[in-house]
Amino acid sequence: MAVRGRRALLAALHFAAFAAVASASAAEVKDFVSDHCLDCHDNATHKGKFSLEGLSDQIDDGNAKQWLKVLEQIERRNMPPADEDQPTPAERHAAELTLEAKLVAQASPHTERRATMLRRLNRVEYRDTIRDLLQLNLGSFDPTREFPDDNRVHGFPSDGEKLVTSSFLLRQYLEATDQIVARAVHFEPKPAVQRWDLKPPFDRTTLGFNYSETAYFRTVAKQPQPYQTIYEAASGSPKGGYHPLDDLRAGVPASGWYHIRIRAEAKFRHADFDLKKFHFPPGNDPTEPIRLSLFTGTLEGIDPENKEIVNYAATHQQLGERQLATWDLPDDGATWLDCRVWLDRGYFPRLAYPNGPTDANNRLHHYFVENRYTLLNKEQLARYEQDALRGDNYNAPMWFESPRILVSQVEVEGPLNEAWPPASHRLIFGDKPYQSSAADEVLHGFATRAWRRPVEANEVRPIVTLVRAAEKAGQKPEVAIQQGLKAILCAPEFLYREEKSETLNDYEIASRLSYFLWSSMPDERLLRRAAAGELHRPKVLREEAGRLLSDPRADAFIDEFLNGWLAMRKLGTMAPDVNKFAEYYRDDLEAAMRTETRLYFRQLLHTNGSIDLFLDSDYSFINRKLARLYGIDPKVVEAAVGQPVEGLTAQDLVPDSEGHAPSLGFARVKLPDRRRGGLLGQASILTLTANGVDTSPVIRGVWILENILGEPPAPPPPDVPVIEPDIRGAKTIRDQLEKHRANATCRSCHHLIDPPGFALETFDAIGRWRGHYVKANAAVPVDSSGQLGATEFKDVSGFKTALLQDHDQFARCLVEKLLIHALGRELDVTDRPAIRHILETAAPDGYRLRDLILLCTESDIFRRK
Amino acid sequence: MKTTLAALVVTLAMFGGAFAQENLTSAQAEKLVTGKKGTLALNQLKSLSPEVAAVLARYDGELSLDGLETLSPEAAAALARHKASARFGVADILLDGLLQIAPDTAAALATHQGAITLKSLRTLDSLPLAQKLARQWGELQLNGLTTLTPEIAAVLATNEGVLVDRTRPGVEQRRADHAASVLRFDNLTTLAPATAAALAKQKGVLVLNGLTALAPDTAAALVKHEGTIVLNGLTTLPADTAKALAPCPSALVLKGLISLSAESRAALRGHPDIRLPEAFQK
């Protein structure tokens, strides 16, 4: 029945496709091929080993692939070649429509279309669903931390066929569920608010400089220690650089909001302190304020008797740590800093100086030793040498006027829970005290929300039986009910999204929409509209899609779509060479690059800008560090930080929303020339398409073909050797690739791959502009010219002009990516009419991003399995 | 019992690397030097016989004899046979308690091939010893000197600084490559122009933190120095001295200044690399 229904639907599609091309005919395609293809692709010439002469114009299973290839070549303007007579646009369009209709007609009745299958929630979806289902503030808790990575198709972790479930993952589900329920259910009394007034030293048990500073005030100065000094960055330090609050090392006793106040002062920002003279990047930058950050830390799972490990964990970067707040500190004058942050039970705050000098390999210490005569006055030198005589090397920083933070007081108060029990508990049990007799009702209500659809009583009955059995075994009702909650969260109905009918029902549409745009479950309103049977109406669906896109939860769409489409997830996986690109680490450029692209996309989405701006623009969103990388005066950014930007909030532009650190702020900045505009000038893209050491036009070319032009090249044949860099430095990569293309087999792909890659050659492996290669100690000018289709270009600006001239192809690529992400399956030829409809509807307005997304959700294929 | 106690003392001393007796017999010295490495600290020793010195000279490591206030020529000659260390930046014999050295003692010490420290020496008039010190690697700190003749200054100024130990790769090697000569005089409170002119020929860091005042003519002689001049004993800088210092071609460190007149500041404004207290940097 289901197959018959699907065939009927596809047959309708078949007719619709034909109706759209009523004026076209098979003869038109034949004429088109005869006029524009057969000169080269007849049996005699057989160019590219491809002949159309013997190809029947009756499309069948045997020739459909070849005809599809013909259609794609015509659509992409690859054929006829630029130096041959061109069809008129009308002729081309007619041929495209006719061929497409024939292909769809052929595929529909005879081929089992690849339908969206049962889809497991991927990691992001699982985490965000738990968050929204229980209104949990996940804080430092990531229930998916131990889950294996999800397989991706076309960059997206949403293809049901690839989202496999292993026995390992099943065990992780069980463990995660235990933790989730423990965090959500609170039968215990409201935790009392506690207050900690902390005085220096805050991290007494940390070895090193702070110990010496404490000893000095106790034994030499004989006065209460007035402050604790933080003099090194929190990264690149063998001593860790994180300063835990010792009185809270066991972690806060209960999860909740905590009010933290810190009295701190920045000192010696402009001191005579230039580590550049000591052969390594200084880490600190005197032109920006000294910053104090608050990070989370935990010692959970560490043997408290193992002091060495405890100290290491407390003072070093921790997996999954969160930056709670960051402040720009005023110079020379203690000030109170304030924040309200979420801390999970067992976690504690740690102080750090993120833009401080780095002490990797003890270089800060060595710097002090070597430069003590130029950095210290007489008294400081005498004290320093007394310490050195005692062998107290780590005391050295105390006597130097290196940039530093003096922290004199810390106050922590919490948990400040306004309501008790928390929302997660009330969502499950309501406002009344729980009694065993309510188990049915509680479980049914919870399952309805967790499974994102109405639930029949018989579906919950086995779970109720489980709870009753636990009660009979002696468990208290409050404990036994938790077994039931866990069972609901481990059920396939929670873990999988099943779309049962060929045409999705309203609840399935609600889930498809919310997982597409939020990576999470539908909210109450969406489920309500599903219950009312409204969501299958395109107008309602568009309205709801618009609402979801305007919600902060759409951040998940931005991140997941960028990870899939642009491969942003790969940024940092080929870490740039630390010696060649020290600023990448010193300036935390990876995070800045990611933020730039995210802000760019977000602003375009919220202002419904044209997708042409992905290809070229005269602005971007950068911070001071990226400005420096791009050769823009950081003062331009400083002047623009804080100015309102349409489509973005003030919080969007300053990544650390708690605290107050305008020095980290991003601003919309007008670019001085066209080189940087659009995605192809953004450092994120240029870095993730390099190998960390050098650039490869092949990697960048393939990336452009896949993600901008939608023309992924075939994988290289197995017997073709990799192009090794010319370590003698005599040849440029262009010379090498030209030789490579001399081979006809290589040329068939590389004539498409190399030109886009060459266009970006004027950007190095982290996106810095370069006009020259340094080869064999000589500067060789970079040649970034090439040809895209019929258009020749001289450089990256010309390349972008060429892309813009044919932005239809880019629009198709983008829409296909959106649909792959939304539908959770690969596209096939029968999706073409829907894609064409989206494109033709959006084209007159210049392909606006938000419109394209909404059109995808309105499309009939969005409502089909 | 006594033997046991002595053995215990020696054993403790061996483990701790320090020895707490004022005198030492050859036999005790033999036990101390056998099979040990690192620093042998005998800082409580007040006197050293030539015999004991000869035994100690066989020690394969740094000898710290900072308690000695006098040293006979014979003992010095014996000590001078101590093997020089190949380690970068490590002194071989520390004699930082010696206040005076007789010419013969100085001549004997001058034959030593390694590095000797004499941080408390009040006068240095032995040319051979000065030449020996100038040849040493590591910092040359003569913090006890209260006077310095132009002749001795000229010799000391030939010091070339750290000997680069090519056997040590990595960071240590790069540091060594870049370590310059350091001449340090913490107790020279006055400096004649001729001595200043001699010291100005040194290439490296010249630390004159003992100077509490600097005459313009001495300043004028010093500025021919091509390295770093450290004058952290100066709390004020008269304008004429500032003007004399201004042409100094490289780093000038004046971290001890408490006051700086506008005229002096103006004189120094054009200096390419001046290090002042933070209060004067803005």
TrEMBL record, chain A:
Signal peptide: 1-26
Alphabetized UniProt keyword annotations: Signal
Domain annotation DUF1587: ranges: 119-185
Domain of life: Bacteria
Record-annotated DUF1592 domain positions: 504-632
Entry keyword Methyltransferase: no
Domain (DUF1585) ranges: 791-862
InterPro entries attached to this UniProt entry: DUF1585 (IPR011478), DUF1587 (IPR013036), DUF1588 (IPR013039), DUF1592 (IPR013042), DUF1595 (IPR013043)
Record domain DUF1595: where: 439-499
Domain DUF1588: start-end pairs: 676-771
Name listed for the protein in its UniProt record: Cytochrome c domain-containing protein
Species whose genome carries this gene: Chthoniobacter flavus Ellin428
From TrEMBL, chain B:
Signal peptide: 1-20
Signal in keyword set: yes
Keyword terms: Signal
Keyword Signal annotated: yes
Record's protein name: Uncharacterized protein
Species of origin: Chthoniobacter flavus Ellin428
